[in-house]
Amino acid sequence: MSAVSEPGALRATRFLVGASWRNGPGAFVLSLFETVGRVLEALVPLLVGLLVTGALQHDVALVWWGGAGIVVSQGLQFVLMTVGVHARLDMTDRIGHDFEERVGRLSGSVATTDHLDDPAHQDRMQSFTERSGALGGAFNALVNTFNNAASPITTFVVAWLADPRLLLLLIVAIPSTWAVKFTTRWDEQAEHASAPAGRLSGHLMGAMVEPTPASELRVMGARAKIATRASEAVRAWRRPSVVAARHTSVLTSAISTIYLLSATAILVWMTRDALHGAVTVGALTTAVLVIGDFRDSVESISWTFTMTSRMVRAGRRYLWLSDYVAEVDAIHAGTLSPPQRLTEGIRLRDVTFTYPGAKTPTFLGLSLDLPAGSTVAIVGENGAGKSTLVKLLTGIHDLDEGEITIDGVDLRDLSLPRWRASSSGAFQDHMRFEVSARDAIGLGDLEQEPTDDVVRGALTRASATDVLRALPDGLDTQLGTDWPGGVGLSGGQWQRLAIARGMMRERPLLLVLDEPTSALDPATEHRLFDGYAEAARRTRDNGGITLLVTHRFSTVSAADLVVVLDQGQVAEVGTHADLIARGGHYAQLYELQAAGYR
Question: What domain of life is recorded for the organism (predicted)?
Answer without folding.
Answer: Bacteria
